[in-house]
Each structure stands twice: as C-alpha cells, then as structure tokens.
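User: Second chain of the day. Same drill as before.
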Amino acid sequence: MSTSSRSPSPLLPAFGSDSEGEHNRTSLESTSLAADRRLETLHMSTLPGWEHLKPYSPLTLTLDPLPGCGGHLWPSSLVLTRYLSRPESLSSLSKHTHGLELGAGTGAVGLGLGRMWEGKIVISDVGSMVELMDRNVRDNYGDGQDRIQARELFWGDPLPSWVLSSKPTLILLSDCIYLETLFSPLISTLSSLWQLCGGMEGKVEVLMASKKRRKADKRFWTLFKKEGWQWEEIEVEGGEEKEGARLFRCFIP
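Assistant: Same format as last time:
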C-alpha cells in the first residue's frame, strides 16, 4: 500500500549506506522522467539475495520513492519470492490457477512469481502505486497480455467484481503490516477472500512475509487471532539480506 510511513529505511538487498545515509546505487540505472520525479530501475537477478531469479527471463523493477514507502523494495519481498522459487513450492502451486498480491507496491513478488509460475496473477495496491505496477508489468511482460495484471484494491471495501469472478486461491503479502489504521481493513479483506475463494475447503493458501519494526505490530497479530486466524512460520534460507523478515502461512481452521 502507498498511504503510510513505514520504517524510514527501505532495504535494497544489494546496497549499503554511506555516512549520510544515502544508498549506494552502483548497480541500478536512474532515469529522470520529470523535474520532481526520479524513477530507479533495478535488474533483480543481479542483486545479492535475488539469485533465485537467475534461471528465468530477466526481471527489471522500477522503483518510485517519492509517493511514500510503497515504491521501494523491501526485504519481505525477497523472503517470499525466495520461498516461492523452491522446487517443492513451485510444484505445490500447480493446484492454483489465480494468484493475488495485496499491497504490492512495486509488484516485486507477483512479477517475480510470474517468471516462475504459469498461473494468472493480479498485483494490487492503490493510488499512484497502480501506475507504477502497471509500468513494471508492461516493462516485463509487454502490452496486450492478461496473465499478469495491475489492479486497484482498497482494503476493507467490498471485494471488486474482478476478484469475485477470478476467486484467487493464492494470496500473497509482503511488508503489509505497518500502518495501524489499516490493520482491521487488511484483516477484513483477507477474511473475505478466505470465505469467497474456498478457504474452509482447503483451496486457499495465504503467504505473508513480514518484518517486525515496532511494538505496535503486535496489535495486528492480536486482531488477526481475534478474527479466527492462525499462522505457522515457514523457514526460509538466507542470512543478512533477509534483514529479519519472516514468512508465515496463515489460515482459519
């Protein structure tokens, strides 16, 4: 999502920081598209920690840091895509035909999954993030295709018609726990998706990657449990590039 202030340090896995706190972007291209807007393009498989994308077609990702935190690359997306790239994970995805990424920001997870999996994927967010996601879809998958799409989806609102018709059974989230006013709307949307898409029949898989940043994050998990959700942690290999991000499989028993 694009309407918040996450931790002020977006984590680009390849880059350290200099004494003034600015990222060293020696591995990316920067293109000024307007006087007040600067977009940055990453070549994903060249970044440390993202080697799992190397066997697939190249993936580029345009970032836009100006609207807020949604246009950055965050560590949870690395953890989630790394898990999805496992052979056993890809094998299990055969039971799904439609995937949905919530609060996608740049769309890193859904776009990366699209290189590894043949199912249909919608990456969703709100506001200016939809334009950014759409650009990344076009840059990587071209115009005129409908397998990978960018859509607007507001948490807490009734599910839009395109969700009702597609009934996605693979739900993905990374770094979506950060703004307290969105905790309840996010949980409401997840519960609606679980009910609509067959969660109680074992058809839905919800994978949520997250990094604990504040004590307030605990409130999300308290509310989540109160609404009937449970979760189990999935171990994902990696070291410092994970930056403490963890992966959970979430479900309503």
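The first helix runs from residue 75 to 84.

User: Great, on to the next one.
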